[in-house]
Every structure is written in structure tokens, then in C-alpha cells.
Amino acid sequence: MKNSIYKFIFITLTFCTLVTGSTVHAQTPGTGAASGASVTPGTGKITGKALDAQTNETIPFASILIIDRKTKTTVKTGQTDVNGNLVIGGIPDGVFSIKISYVGYQSLSRDSISISKTHQLINLGTIKMKASKGNALNEVNVTAKKAPIQLGIDKKTFAVDQSLVSQGGDASDLLSNVPSVSIDQDGNVSLRGSTGVKVLIDGKPSLIAGGDIASILASIPASSIESVEVITNPSSKYDSEGDSGIINIILKKNSIRGFNGNVSGSAGNRDNYNATAALSYQNNNVNVYGNYSYRYGRRVGGGFNNITYLNPINDLAYADQLTNSISIDKTHNFKFGIDYTLDKKDVISLSAGFNIRDNERNDQLNINEYAPGRVPLEFDDRTNDNNGSGNSHDFNLDYSHKFKKDQELTFNFGYSGGTNNNFQQYNTNIASLNGVPYNDADPLMQTNANDGTNTNYNIQADYNMPLGKLGKLETGYRSQIRLSNSNIVAETFDNPSGAYVQDYQLSNRFKSNDQVHALYVNYSNQIKNFGYQIGFRGEDAKLNTTSTAFDQNGVGTPEPGRVAYNRLYPSIFLTQKFTGDQSLQLSYTRRVNRPRPWDTNPYTDISDPLTWRRGNPNLLPEDVHSYELSYSRFWPKVTLIASAYIRQTNDLIQRIRSTPDSAGIIIIVPENLGKSTNSGFELIAKVDLLKAWNFTANVNGYHSSIGAIDAGTVEGVNFEALEAVSGYSWNANLTNNFTLSRSVTLQLRGDYQSSQVQSQGTQKARYGVDGGAKYDFPGKKASLSFNVRDIFNTRKFGATIQDSNSITDFQRYQKGPMGTITFAYRFGNTSFTKKPKKQEKQDDQKPDEGSF
């Protein structure tokens, strides 16, 4: 009853807010006027071109507002086109201010732009945008907040520095606030309800914890993140990996001119702490920056895993497992870099990052086994202790050369390496036999030591060439080489000898060499209001693995594995802009979801006593075909993005369950299941409801179907035939922002994920509510914020899995809400700014280089 009330409240709040936002929109004339004011369209026109001030690269899809200086109403809104060109017509006579913004750049404004019968055309010329805040050039005013949503031809960018509810948390807490993205209790990332997301850090894969996404997100403080790019249908320019899309996390770089810095510290309940510090120095030729962050995260969780055996095995009919866990993560992150401008055409950059981490996890398990009628058989107590440590480092060399306007060659060489060491100890005691306490047996004690190394290389070159009226050409090459090596030594305590003896059958050595070499070409052009982009990406992919298993005498048998293929990945984007700042886009891309090296390792993980996991060396890559139709519309107070999509996946990879063995143990292995289809409709709306209240809402409804599969055997694991399944699901989130005064802001967020079908069961619904508040001290250099995540302690992850042999009901959750208080302080100055010049007459002025 309690959960139903929370669900009803959240759905009602989402519906009412969207209806209210629609009402505000309905009161807004189609001319783009705000607050119900009527504006008569005119014949004035404003043109210009937005460029990056440092690289001279064009800035497509930057947002523009034209505001009447007298009434303060918004007369027109728009965006730059794919080549950064700004053209806004239909402007009436009057005096206006113009504001331009884009995520990652300081927002610019210009006052006293006069449109009259004798002066209808205003050419702003080249508009240079700085990739930071705080640099006041000629007639430039910097606003405090970036636009929360920016649209590109193949991606959406979300500014996340205003997310109060994630302050003091990690990257997974922050990603949960991004529309279209959801994170489950284990840190697995979904995009529009589908897994298989490619997560990048600054455009590259991370080696933290061997590339484990959950560990990567847990080790990055939310305060280190500048923005998040969500690419649901990536073009051929991007790596083709990730069947449901790409999430690119952009870390802060600190490129403010002069000497600047900031520090922050967070403290939360249950001993959770964060600290960050950043310094930067920039003049006309050099930008030097450095960041450091420390995270101490302590999470207390629990869960259950209950199995009902439909065909009892040796009188075993039920197995109930209750788990209580404590996990402690300690992480140090360092990032340093220097950008040096050799001349007007050449920029060279060097950067380095370091990550040092330790993890301690303790699981207390109670395992109760029953005969039919719930007659007690055996009750066990088990402890799983895991101590992990590791480090990773990355180095990047970047070089860019400008041949002429908008023609550029960029090059990147990246190297990263890391170690990952884990020591696990399992101790099992028999607490009761047949309902009678039993303490005479010696405990079963096992250890598992896993030492691993990882090395990545990235070589990439990109070339952009404008073709004038014929459009733009982009081409490039990329090689990614990923090497990994792990050695697992398992031991069991021998009571007669009083020493640990190696268990060769649970020991394993695994090596992988994963290489992807790619060439791509993209051609784009815009004919009046119609734009198109056509691209092709050819990839040569190879995954070579060697898994060495041992017999009882310690003799190892290497088993080679190989997945190799060549594929062509086309992409097509068609965009039509309409009047009223609206556009329609149709796109098609081909994608791939490659098996992870570890998923191809036939080694058996026994850390869960009832459910073991094993890899499959015969996995094939998924082949994904994605279609999407998107509509976007901008009003002065409303940003709306609506998308309909269909994604067909061939050779779908799903984790399937075996029939239970003689001890009741179920083994899970990944297997290709044939074909699946996901289709749905998504709505994202950003609404400035009142001056003191705005919200961002995201609703996604979709239908999933998974094909049938015949019974078979995978790596010695028998599984039954699976019938085709299908079902409807939906998810939603709503983020409300309230400005109570110039110093106090509030944020309230709720999310809901309905139940959804899987190949062998149903994932349960989950939902939660977060809240935060922030106070800016006078002068805006310091702030104090407080937030609570999962206020009602409802965010639980679970599923019910059923086949003809067993039914499994499991759930995992964090115990209690997480509250955090954060203090942040910013310092520094901008000593290399130009002195303001006297404003020239509007009719004769053309902006100076580097000003607006």
C-alpha cells in the first residue's frame, strides 16, 4: 500500500507538471513572444557566425535569445546551424539584447542592437566563444548558468553543474539525473531502458578497475564532471560500440584566464566524504591546469535471493539467501594538463591522469535450505570478504593544425595502463542440520586471489574540410588496442594439514588482445533549412583470448578463443528546420555490441553460493540497426524534444540460467539468443514555468520483444528451450528547480522505472525521490549545499526469474537515505582580459576579433 501511494504521487506530479507546462506553452504566441505578449513580426535580420575562440572551430546548434530591451520579453529564439552560422529573421523594429550560449562555453550577451526601417540587417560577424567562465572582453557579459540542454545533429548535451541532488555523490548519482539514463543498484547503466551502453570519459574508454563501468562511476566524484553527452544514435564519426548508444562524461578542465582555483569538501551520513581541488593558469599562449579529488564512500546494503525448485533435488525444495553488505571505496584521482598555442594555426596539448583506489567489501550471508513443506534441511552462515586495490594512469598527446578557416587536422595518441588486484575469502559454517544446531563440522574456508593488468593504446587522426556551398567533409582513422592479463589462484583450507592447498579446478589464467581499427568519412551539407549528413565507418575487429584451466594435478590446458570480423557501419541524418524554431530529424545507424573479454572466459565465479557465473568463448557480437525520428521545438519558456525509435538487434546477448545441478546450484552464462526488437517513444521537456520555478521532465515508453531459442549446452551448462517473450515498459523522471532568492535554490527530483520483461523473467519496478538545497554566500565565491538521495528509501532493484525447473526471486538495495553537506569555494582573478572599448555606433560596428 505504501509503495502504491508513492507511485501514485510521482505519476500524478509528473502529469500535472507536464500539463501545466503545456498550458504555459499554449499561452505563448507562435511568434516566440514570452508571457503572453504579442509581437508583430518584422523584416529585420541578424546574422553572424559562432566560433571557438581558441581553436576557431565552428560551434553548431548554439542557442540564441533576442530580448526586447524595453519590455524584457523574448522576441525570437534560434540556433546556429551545423556550420555555426546564425541567421534569424522576422525581427520587428526596436532595440534588443542578444544572448548566445552553449554547454562548455561562457554565455555572451550584446546590448543595444537597433532594428529600424533604414537599418534592417545587422551582421554580428565572427562571434568568439570562450570555453570557460570569467573572461570579460569587449562588451561581453558572462551569465551564471549554462543552458541545461543543447542539441547537436547526432547528440544531446546536458549541463550538470547545477545538479544539487548529486552534490557530494559520485558519477552514478549524477548520471541518474540525466534524461534517458538510469542506473540500477549494481551500477549498470541503461539508456532508454536498454543496457549495452558505451560509457566514455572525455571521449575515451577508462581503465579504472579494468574497465568495469560500475567501479569507474563509483570512483569519479560528481563535482569533477562538467557535462554529459548522450548520443542515442551515433554517427559514423563515433566508435560503433554500444547497441543502445554512447554516454560521454566530460570532466572539468579549468581553462579560465589568469590564475584561478576552487576547492570543495563534502561529508555525509554513514561516513561518506569527498574532497576536490583545482588550479589553473592561462594567458594568451599557455593554459596549465590540475585537479585532485578524493572519495571515501561507505555503502550499507542488503538483499535476498530466494529459489523455489519446482522439481525437488535430493529433498531440496527451497533455498533462501539473505545478504547484508558493507562496501568501502577509497579513491584518489589526479589530472594535469597543458595546452600551448604555438602560433595562430597550431595548438599542442599534453595531459595525464592517475587513479589510485582501494575497496573493501564484506558480505554476511544466511543460507537456509528446506525440504517440501518447508521442513528444515541445512542452515549455513557464510562471510564473503573482498579486498581490492589497483591503480591506473593515462597519458594523452593532442595536436591540432588549422590550414584555413574551418579546415583542421587533429591528432591524438593515448596510452593508459593499470593494475587490478582482488583477494576474496569465503568462510562457510553449518549452523543447523534438520532443525538442530550443528557446530561440530570444521568451516569450509576458500580464498581467491586475482591479479590483473590492463594496457590500452589509442591512435586517432581527424580531418575536417569545408567545401563552401557544397557542405563539409569529415574523415579520420582510429586504432584501439586493449591488452589484458589476469591470473586467478584459488585455495581451500585443508584441516588435517592446517594449511591452504591450491584448488586447481577453480584457478584460471586469462589473456586477451582486443583490437579495433577503423576508417570513417562523413559528408554534411545544409540547403536552406534542410540539412543532411551521410557517413560510413569501416572497422576491422579482432578479439583473441587464451583461457588456461587446470586439472586436479595442476596441469594447465590453454584454450584459445577468437572473434574476428569486418563490417561497414553506415549512418544517415536528415534534418529539416521549420518556422517557429522547430526541427525534424530522421536518422539510421548501424551499431555493434562486442563481447567483453571477461564474458568469453569459461572460468566459473563461485562468489555467490547459489548462483555461479561462467563465460562463453563462442559469443558472437551483436549486430544492431537503429532508426530514430526526432522533433524539437524551442519556445521562450519551453524546450521540447520528442523521439520515436526502433532498434533491431541480431545475435542478442543475454545471460541465461542452467538447470540446477545435484546441489541445487544454478549457473548463468551469456549466450546469443537470436533477434530482439525495441521500439518506443521518448519525450524530454525543459519548462521555465515561473521566474522562480523550472523543471525538466523525461518520459520514455517502449515495447521489447526477445526471440525464441532452442535447448542446448554452453560450456557444459544445460539450458532449456526459451520461448519468445514481449512486453511494454516505461520510465520517467522529473527534476524541479526552485529559486527562492538570489542566494537560495532548491531542487526536487523523482524517477520511476516500470517492470520489464527479460528472456527468463521480469525485472521489478523501482522508483525514488531526491532533494537538495544550495546557498550562495555574498559575492558568489562560496556556497553551501545539502541534499538527500532516496528520501523515502524506496529505490530497490529486483527481479523474478522463472523456467520449468525453478523460480528465483531476488532483490538488492541500499539501507536508508544518503544525506550530504558540501562547502565549495572559488578564488582567483582574470588578469589577462582586454580593457573595454567605447561602444561604436551600432550601424557601423563590426565586432573585434575575440569579442562580441
Structure characterization notes:
This protein is mainly beta. The protein folds into two domains: 43-139 and 836-852, Immunoglobulins (Immunoglobulin-like), CATH 2.60.40.10; 156-437 and 446-466 and 475-493 and 504-828, TonB-dependent receptor, beta-barrel domain (Maltoporin, Chain A), CATH 2.40.170.20. Helix content is 4%, strand content 62%. It contains three helices and 48 strands. It has a 22-stranded antiparallel barrel. The protein has a five-stranded mixed beta sheet with strand order 8-9-13-14-12, with no helix packed on it. Strand 16 (272-282) and strand 17 form a beta hairpin. It is globular and about 100 Å long. The N and C termini lie far apart (59 Å). 40% of the residues are buried. The model is unreliable at 4-39, 132-145 and 830-851 (pLDDT under 50).
In short:
This protein is mostly beta strands. The protein is built from three helices and 48 strands. The strands form seven sheets. The protein has a 22-stranded antiparallel beta barrel. Strands 8-9-13-14-12 form a five-stranded mixed sheet, with no helix packed on it.
What topology does this entry show?
Layout: H1 2-26, E1 44-52, E2 63-68, E3 74-79, E4 85-91, E5 94-101, E6 108-115, E7 121-129, E8 149-151, E9 156-159, H2 171-175, E10 181-183, E11 189-191, E12 198-201, H3 213-219, E13 225-231, E14 246-251, E15 258-268, E16 272-282, E17 286-313, E18 316-341, E19 346-371, E20 375-404, E21 407-433, E22 436-437, E23 444-466, E24 472-494, E25 499-502, E26 508-527, E27 530-550, E28 556-578, E29 582-593, E30 604-605, E31 611-614, E32 622-634, E33 638-650, E34 653-657, E35 666-672, E36 675-690, E37 693-706, E38 712-714, E39 717-719, E40 725-739, E41 744-753, E42 756-758, E43 761-763, E44 766-776, E45 782-789, E46 796-802, E47 806-814, E48 818-828
